[in-house]
Amino acid sequence: MWDLLELLLLSIGAVPFLVTATSGTTVLGAFDPLEAIADVCQRHGLWLHVDAAWGGSVLLSQTHRHLLAGIQRADSVAWNPHKLLTAGLQCSALLLRDTSNLLKRCHGSQASYLFQQDKFYDVALDTGDKVVQCGRRVDCLKLWLMWKAQGGQGLEQRVDQAFALARYLVEELKKREGFELVMEPEFVNVCFWFVPPSLRGKQGSPDYAERLAKVAPVLKERMVKEGSMMVGYQPHGTRGNFFRMVVANPALTQADMDFFLNELERLGQDL
Ligand SMILES: *Cc1c(COP(=O)(O)O)cnc(C)c1O
Predict the structure, then answer these.
(1) Strand 18-22 vs strand 47-51: parallel, antiparallel, or unpaired?
(2) Could you say which of 174, 190, 196, 215 would form a disulfide bridge with 245 (CB–CB 3.0 to 4.6 Å)?
(3) How many whole angstroms from 62 Cα to the centroid of ligand 1?
């Protein structure tokens, strides 16, 4: 596939300068093959950016970090500890391989009334002139404090527990009539359709997909009005609306997963 992409770009005379790969896509939780992509970037001298906003925290797990193999070859990586690690919103990091003060060269405005260069300490410690914003919060402190409190092992445990709980949910869901997985999850996003009683066994009928797509919005309305759950849904490409249960909250238990499935069955029994 990557060879095809290269051929296509070269054949239309385009001059790409950047490739953005994703580690943990928002809906399906898919991981791009970073080693293969980095090979292409290396051959053509392209900047490799990895959007690891969602999946970057998997690096903390010895068991699951293979999903990001090759990320060490990226030129830049975006990572949101406010997602899987549950740091308070917001806490987003941009990690750069560059050591030439690229951000300062790009964003520095050298305002004479800010960030004086003739101070008594190492002015490289002043990060203000590296970013677009001027006034901003110390978001990294939340990550630092959380890391201190939990330790690397504590954070690893959170990630591993999320994977284990997502796996439990998938196995339980497979045992029940009326739940259909969109795909085997790679990550903690469990994407599935709830097939209500009136649609079971009707997979062959011409309006099946259209009717199935109307189920998730109805169930979402019911769960919100009941106040029992908040779980998102969306269409994706040619697939109609399906639920996306993201198992990330470290307080979740297997009992919550059971409740989730029971509650969907209860809310959808008359559909
Ligand atoms: C959440 C997410 C983003 C957006 O991150 P923000 O910090 O909220 O802007 C980008 N990419 C992926 C894959 C995401 O899941």
Answers:
(1) parallel
(2) 190
(3) 24
Cα 53 to ligand 1 centroid, rounded to whole Å:
5
Residue 71 half-sphere exposure toward CB, CA atoms < 13 A: 24
Buried b vs exposed e over 151-180: b needs ≥16 C-beta within 10 Å? eeeebbebbbbbbebbebbbeebeeeebbe
- Sign of dihedral through CA atoms 165, 170, 172, 178? positive
Closest CA to 79 of 166, 139, 152: 139
Helix (H) / strand (E) element for 246: namely strand 239-246
Cα(136) to centroid of ligand 1, in Å?
A: 19
pLDDT the model gives residue 2? 61
Residue type (1 letter), 51: D
Cα distances (Å, whole numbers) of residue 117 to 138, 145, 234: 22, 30, 51
Q: For 228, which DSSP code? A: S
Does an H or E element contain 175, and which?
A: helix 140-175
Question: 189 in ligand 1 pocket by Cβ < 6 Å?
Answer: no
∠ at Cα 237 (231, 241), nearest 5°? 30
pLDDT on residue 135? 82
**What's the average pLDDT block by block, 10 residues per block, for the chain (271 residues)?**
72 88 98 97 95 98 98 98 94 94 89 89 86 86 96 97 98 97 97 97 94 98 97 96 96 97 98 95
DSSP for 102-120?
HHHHHH----TTSS-SS-S
Indicate whether residue 86 lines ligand 1 (CB < 6 A): no
Q: Please report the pLDDT score of residue 145 as a whole number.
A: 96
pTM of the model: 0.91
